[in-house]
User: Fold this.
Amino acid sequence: MIHIEMLKEGQQLVIDVIKGEVWFNTFVGGRIMRNTIDGVQMLPADLVREFPDLEGKSYSEMRKEAIRRFKEKVMSFSSEKDLMDYLVSDLEKGGYSLVRALSGSEVLAYARKHGVKLGVA
Assistant:
């Protein structure tokens, strides 16, 4: 289990990885948007920047392939720490600043201390 909190221009992004599923929770203007990678909005320019070989394909093809590659990448890490480091590093490239990153027992201890109920909706 991984819990990462990051900030960018007044937007808070919380990433939770539970049983291999990555959840993106975005808090903007009092609204919460919760998605897996399948529901995350992606700009065509960002997709091409991350995966130059996808240039020239339709947006839906680029998006589908980017999601496939992301899921494959997530599953390739041998430890939660390596996955957490990858996610933080990738988001920092996009202008996000790290607030907090916890993994494994740290997540459970933090949840207990702050009365947070773990799980996904």
User: Anything to note?
Assistant: The first helix runs from residue 44 to 50. The chain has one domain: 2-114. The chain has a mean pLDDT of 88. The helical segments are 44-50, 59-76, 80-93, 105-114.
